[in-house]
């Protein structure tokens, strides 16, 4: 990986020649030594001698003469003189104090004698004197190294070989940095030459340098050295209570820039260090990042303090870790209080309490959001006509704005028979009744009784919507009763397609990320059965992808692959087929190279869906890793021009079939494999280039976890927007949305605003959705104003106006208290279920008119998987009751490698908890009165009294 290699090469390599540090010194040195390097001295040869005499003070002259005399002593045949001379040299070199910017005087004066000293060294027999001589030469070599010689290291190793060498740290910092730099080079050289070459002496030497670096606040240098020598696992034995925090912070920050397997090695080493120092919250964060079941379980069971375990349980609940990973179901020791924290049982009550504290509990009306009196609409027609399309948009706006509060006026608070559902027509009723689940989000007790009455409706769409509402209601929350599964199971076999689809989608939303094995047979039968419609099969595959996200499940994967191979090409051309590919891809989310075998199998399918599924699986496998090679691969897919390829291949259909089978031809060539039929419709063309839309989103998905990469991809997107095919241009706004959910940066808003006025209406519709996702739950005033202007601009364009309304609802999601950013816990962890929700919605917008703008507008509810309150609530440790305390909230600052104890936030404001946090904001406690059990102040945090706190008068 290019990024990783660059990191390896540039980490803390000091200047090869300290003598070059200062131009003045270089000139001086050249004058003193008469060395060829003195480029700066432009004096004539005659003036040189006088200057030399002038510049050397009496003290320096005396030192110079003494050093020359000691050098002569070493040339004597009398061995008795050697030891005292070496001892004197050592003392002079070590005690020489000089300015920080110049080379120490003894090294400067001995430099001309270095070649002679080397020759003398060769003639000496092995002895303790020779070992000391070797050490002195090693130090001198710092100022006299020919490129690539690495003599500082060579003589150091010789000294260790000949006899017992002294601790290298006694020669000072600069010497240690030189040794470290040469060690890395030597190790790489040996690895390239011959892998069997021994490197044990290099590692032994490195293990002398590491403790020195750690002792002298150079944790980064120690980590870099062990990285270069591929021995990072040896670090834990050297760090102590004073150095572990900075060393681990640096290691974790390096992970995004490393190539596999170094990245995982770093995380595991940092995890071991945290566990060694009983930092359970930090260790658990890294275990969750690794996604290692055994590690998560051992971390959860490690603390003896029950309050610490409760804090860890809240962390596990936020990441939605399956409870089965932690405890067996029949475990008699099951602690139900802990289970409630992992199940997020109290999420609804905490959220409503938070809303009341912030004074946003009262429901908002549609007019509060639209503010249509501020729209500069040319006609008043659109506001007066009570159109079904407008009402449908209002359904979603109401659902998103009042999500989780359980008190909206249109649905929950409506009079019997006067519900907003009846203001919608046909399939609109499905989304309207499902919106009840949004209003009552996370509140499983109240929610079930409210939704229940609609399950007996005579209208099929209302019944279907209520089933989906059950699923939406249970998103992110589990209960011992398992009500969602009990209520939805029977409808999975329903004869009615809307009921069947709603039940399947509902189960997918309710159990996303739970890895519940008992759901597999229920849904997998629809995927395997070739007689089921593509819609039902694809939705079942997607629901399984949600539930087993990132698990690479051994039964589901082959079944989906088998179905893709056996289905008719006409079925695979169906618009729903993309969701089957997505379901398969989500199984490998974050699994990196575990998906290689699946991608190879996909290449055997002779249909364009093969290429689409390959791109999806590949991009999901490396989601959030910042892997540069994968980004390049995705860009490569975007550069293929399908129309041109098709013309080329019209003559050679058989060749096209072969290319399609091997997965190397463009999507167009693969169509040659599908019986080579020349009369394929325009729809076929659409499916052919669909993989390019996925590739564009893939760039964003891979880069999203790493800030530098994410910024660099913005430039690529602007190029794709200028030069890309229509499919690619339509996907660019979706990719921008995926890159920055709930993070409305100015530059990004301006870009999307420009795209929202594009000549291609599909680009504009996607850009409007992207504006909603980027601003989701932020109440961003500038974005709200842009959307009001767009509502006026598109007042005659029903599709675009519908999207503007939905985007307005998204921006005010949860009245500004709910976000959809998958990254949490100081942006260290990626919520896999949140990525599922955003990806599923964006994939439906690769054909907006076929799904959301047609009859499948309920797909907007996929976002519920990524919705989570953006709060910080502090609880006391005894009763776990809210504990208001002073908290500073500001912009997160990167403090990796900074000296001392720098501030981790800037531009902060002080509030009393509970407080609302933005995507890139960080909080810290305002006073020392309490200490936190969690390492990151985010979500639900338990505090304990600080025993050493004394209240100021």
Short structural summary:
This protein has about 950 residues and is mainly alpha-helical. Helix content is about 55%, strand content about 5%.
Task: Outline the structure in words.
This protein is mainly α and 953 residues long. Among the domains are: 257 residues, no CATH class; 65 residues, no CATH class; 75 residues, no CATH class. It contains 46 helices and eleven strands. Strands 8-5-11-10 form a four-stranded mixed sheet, with helices on one face. A hairpin with a 6-residue loop joins strand 10 and strand 11. Helix 28 runs parallel beside helix 30. The longest helix is centred in the C-terminal third of the chain and has 22 residues. It is elongated and about 115 Å long. The N terminus is likely disordered.
- How much strand content do the residues show? under 5%
Any idea what the radius of gyration is? 34 Å
**Major β-sheet strand ordering:** 8-5-11-10
Helical residue percent band: 55-70%
Largest sheet: 4 strands, mixed
What is the count of helical runs? Answer: 46
Strand segment tally:
11
Report the mean per-residue pLDDT as an integer: 83
Question: What class do helices, strands and sheet pairing give?
Answer: mainly alpha
Question: Which SSEs are present, and which pair or pack?
Answer:
Layout: H1 2-10, H2 23-33, H3 45-55, H4 58-75, H5 82-95, H6 105-110, H7 114-123, H8 128-140, H9 151-162, H10 173-193, H11 200-215, H12 219-228, H13 244-254, H14 262-276, H15 280-290, H16 293-301, H17 306-319, H18 336-342, H19 347-357, H20 366-370, H21 381-384, H22 388-401, H23 426-439, H24 444-452, H25 460-473, H26 483-488, H27 497-510, H28 520-528, H29 534-547, H30 556-566, H31 569-572, H32 577-586, H33 596-602, H34 608-621, H35 628-638, H36 642-649, H37 653-662, H38 667-673, H39 682-703, H40 707-723, H41 726-739, H42 746-755, H43 761-774, H44 781-793, H45 798-811, E1 818-819, E2 823-824, E3 829-830, H46 832-844, E4 868-869, E5 871-876, E6 886-892, E7 905-912, E8 915-916, E9 921-925, E10 930-932, E11 939-945
Parallel strand pairs: 5-11
Antiparallel strand pairs: 1-4, 2-3, 5-8, 6-7, 6-9, 10-11
Helix pairs in contact: 4-5, 5-8, 7-8, 8-9, 10-11, 11-12, 12-13, 13-14, 14-15, 15-16, 15-17, 17-18, 22-23, 22-45, 23-25, 24-25, 25-27, 27-29, 28-29, 28-30, 29-32, 32-34, 32-46, 33-34, 34-38, 34-39, 35-39, 36-38, 37-38, 38-39, 39-40, 39-41, 40-41, 41-43, 42-43, 43-45, 44-45
GO molecular function: enzyme regulator activity
Family: Belongs to the proteasome subunit S2 family.
Biased composition (Basic and acidic residues): 17-54
């Amino acid at each position: 990986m290019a990024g990783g290699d660059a990191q390896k090469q540039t980490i803390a390599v000091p200047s090869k020649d300290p003598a070059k540090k200062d131009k003045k010194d270089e000139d001086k040195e050249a004058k003193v030594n008469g060395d060829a390097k003195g480029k700066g001295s432009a004096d004539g040869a005659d003036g040189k001698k006088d200057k030399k005499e002038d510049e050397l003070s009496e003290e320096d002259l005396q030192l110079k003469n003494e050093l020359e005399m000691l050098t002569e002593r070493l040339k004597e045949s009398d061995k008795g003189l050697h030891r005292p001379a070496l001892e004197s040299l050592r003392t002079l070199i070590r005690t020489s104090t000089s300015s920080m910017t110049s080379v120490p005087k003894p090294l400067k004066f001995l430099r001309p004698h270095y070649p002679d000293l080397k020759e003398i060294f060769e003639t000496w027999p092995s002895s303790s004197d020779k070992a000391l001589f070797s050490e002195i030469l090693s130090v001198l070599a710092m100022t006299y190294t020919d490129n690539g010689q690495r003599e500082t290291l060579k003589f150091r190793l010789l000294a260790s070989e000949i006899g017992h060498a002294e601790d290298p740290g006694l020669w000072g910092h600069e010497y240690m940095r030189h040794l470290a730099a040469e060690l890395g080079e030597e190790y790489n050289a040996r690895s390239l030459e011959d892998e069997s070459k021994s490197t044990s002496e290099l590692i032994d030497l490195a293990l002398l340098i590491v403790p020195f670096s750690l002792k002298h606040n150079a944790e980064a240098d120690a980590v870099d050295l062990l990285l270069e020598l591929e021995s990072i696992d040896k670090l834990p034995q050297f760090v102590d209570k004073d150095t572990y925090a900075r060393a681990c912070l640096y290691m974790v920050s390096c992970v995004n820039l490393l190539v596999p397997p170094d990245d995982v090695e770093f995380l595991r080493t940092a995890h071991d260090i945290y566990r060694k120092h009983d930092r359970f919250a930090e260790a658990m964060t890294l275990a969750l990042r690794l996604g290692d079941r055994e590690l998560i379980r051992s971390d959860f069971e490690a603390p003896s303090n029950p309050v610490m375990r409760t804090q860890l349980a809240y962390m596990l609940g936020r990441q939605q870790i399956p409870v089965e990973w932690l405890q067996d179901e029949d475990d008699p020791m099951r602690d139900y209080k802990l289970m409630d924290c992992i199940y997020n049982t109290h999420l609804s009550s905490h959220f409503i309490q938070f809303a009341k504290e912030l004074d946003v509990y009262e429901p908002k009306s549609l007019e509060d959001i639209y503010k249509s009196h501020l729209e500069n609409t040319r006609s008043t027609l659109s506001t007066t006509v009570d159109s079904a399309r407008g009402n449908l948009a209002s359904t979603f706006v109401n659902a998103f704005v009042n999500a989780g509060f359980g008190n909206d006026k249109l649905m929950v608070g409506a009079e019997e028979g006067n519900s907003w559902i009846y203001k919608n027509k046909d399939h609109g009723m499905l989304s309207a009744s499902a919106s009840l689940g949004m209003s009552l989000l996370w509140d499983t007790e109240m929610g079930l009784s409210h939704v229940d009455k609609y399950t007996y409706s005579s209208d099929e769409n209302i019944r279907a919507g209520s089933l989906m509402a059950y699923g939406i209601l249970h998103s992110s929350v589990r209960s011992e009763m398992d009500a969602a599964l009990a209520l939805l199971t029977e409808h999975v076999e329903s004869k009615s397609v809307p009921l069947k689809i709603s039940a399947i989608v509902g189960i997918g939303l309710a159990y996303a990320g739970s890895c519940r094995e008992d759901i597999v047979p229920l849904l997998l039968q629809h995927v395997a059965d070739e007689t089921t419609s593509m819609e039902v099969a694809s939705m079942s595959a997607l629901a399984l992808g949600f539930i087993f996200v990132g698990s690479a499940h051994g039964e589901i994967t082959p079944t989906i692959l088998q179905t893709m191979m056996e289905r008719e090409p006409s079925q695979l051309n169906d618009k729903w087929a993309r969701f089957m590919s997505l379901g398969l891809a989500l199984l490998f989310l974050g699994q990196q190279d575990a998906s290689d075998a699946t991608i190879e199998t996909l290449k055997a399918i002779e249909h364009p869906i093969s290429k689409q599924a390959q791109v999806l699986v590949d991009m999901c496998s490396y989601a959030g890793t910042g892997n540069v090679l994968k980004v390049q691969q995705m860009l490569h897919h975007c550069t293929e021009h399908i129309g041109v390829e098709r013309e080329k291949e019209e003559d050679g259909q058989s060749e096209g079939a072969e290319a399609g089978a091997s997965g190397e031809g463009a999507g167009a060539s693969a169509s040659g494999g599908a019986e080579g039929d020349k009369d394929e419709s325009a729809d076929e063309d659409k499916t052919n280039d669909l993989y390019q839309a996925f590739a564009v989103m893939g760039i964003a998905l891979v880069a999203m976890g790493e800030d530098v990469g994410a910024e660099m991809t913005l430039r690529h997107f602007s190029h794709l927007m200028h030069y890309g095919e229509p499919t690619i241009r339509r996907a660019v706004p979706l990719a921008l949305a995926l890159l920055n959910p709930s993070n409305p940066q100015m530059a990004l808003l301006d870009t999307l605003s420009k795209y929202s006025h594009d000549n291609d209406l599909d680009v504009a519709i996607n850009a409007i959705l992207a504006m909603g996702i980027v601003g989701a739950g932020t109440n961003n005033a500038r974005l709200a104003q842009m959307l009001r202007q767009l509502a006026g601009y598109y007042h005659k364009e029903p599709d675009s106006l519908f999207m503007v309304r939905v985007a307005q609802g998204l921006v005010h999601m949860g009245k500004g208290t709910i976000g959809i950013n998958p990254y949490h816990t100081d942006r260290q962890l990626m919520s896999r279920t949140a990525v599922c929700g955003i990806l599923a919605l964006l994939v439906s917008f690769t054909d907006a008119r076929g799904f959301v703008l047609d009859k499948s507008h309920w797909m907007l509810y996929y976002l519920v998987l990524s919705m989570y309150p953006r709060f910080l609530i502090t609880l006391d440790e005894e009763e776990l009751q809210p504990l208001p305390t002073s908290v500073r909230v500001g912009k997160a600052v990167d403090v990796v490698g900074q000296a001392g104890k720098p501030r981790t936030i800037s531009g902060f404001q002080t509030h009393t908890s509970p407080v609302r946090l933005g995507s890139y904001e960080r909080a810290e406690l305002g006073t020392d009165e309490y200490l936190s059990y969690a390492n990151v102040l985010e979500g639900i945090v338990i505090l304990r009294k600080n025993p050493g706190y004394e209240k100021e008068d």
